[in-house]
Design goal:
By secondary structure, the chain is α+β, with helices and mostly antiparallel strands. It has helices at residues 103-132, 145-163, and strands spanning 21-36, 51-64, 67-80, 83-99. It has a single domain, classed as SecB-like (Bacterial Protein-export protein SecB). Strand 2 and strand 3 form a beta hairpin. Helix 1 (103-132) packs across helix 2 (145-163). The radius of gyration is 21 Å and the shape is elongated. The N and C termini lie far apart (64 Å).
Length: 167
């Protein structure tokens, strides 16, 4: 039985085919804020687990014909026993390069795949800053960026249909 082997990066692809690509070039914390509205009065962590609201937004900007910056903006407002406890906000960005990608694919990669790659770093920063603020570390559950993207597209489509024929 003959085996077919594949060597990554061997460059043996058909030169007539497009060379698709999407890579992380760098990533960085752009902004971080932690406001300890009511620091825990006890020497130990509060008995009640903080509760709150989490808001997530993805921002994309093109920096060159073959590069984009993608940012995950996260805001957490937390309360303990109904009293405001802390507010944290952060923006974590990554620069991505791409090659020969059609615009619809690039949009999906920018809004889904790039934030998915950045999110584990956001999660660690939030856990550390909340713990350092005197509260139990906030361990964020994974975010369904694909679902957020689908709902964003669904909201945009009716608006786009309403604009058809008006210009």
């Amino acid at each position: 039985m003959e085996e077919d082997t594949y060597q990554a990066g061997d460059g043996a692809g058909d030169p007539g085919l497009p060379r698709y690509g999407f890579r992380v070039i760098s990533q960085f914390l752009k902004d971080l804020s932690f406001e300890n509205v009511n620091p825990p009065a006890e020497l130990h962590q509060p008995e009640e687990v903080p509760r709150g609201a989490i808001q997530v937004d993805v921002k994309v900007s093109r920096v060159s014909p073959e590069a984009i910056d993608v940012g995950v903006h996260l805001r957490v407002e937390s309360t303990v026993k109904g009293v405001p406890a802390y507010i944290t906000e952060l923006e974590y960005w990554g620069r991505f390069t791409f090659l020969d990608l059609p615009d619809p694919i690039l949009e999906m990669l920018a809004m889904v795949e790039a934030p998915r790659l950045l999110f584990p770093f956001v999660r660690v920063i939030v856990a550390n800053v909340t713990r350092d603020g005197g509260y139990p570390a906030l361990i964020l559950n994974p975010i369904d960026f694909a679902g957020l993207y689908r709902s964003m597209r669904a909201r945009q489509e009716p608006a786009a249909r309403n604009l058809e024929g008006t210009f």
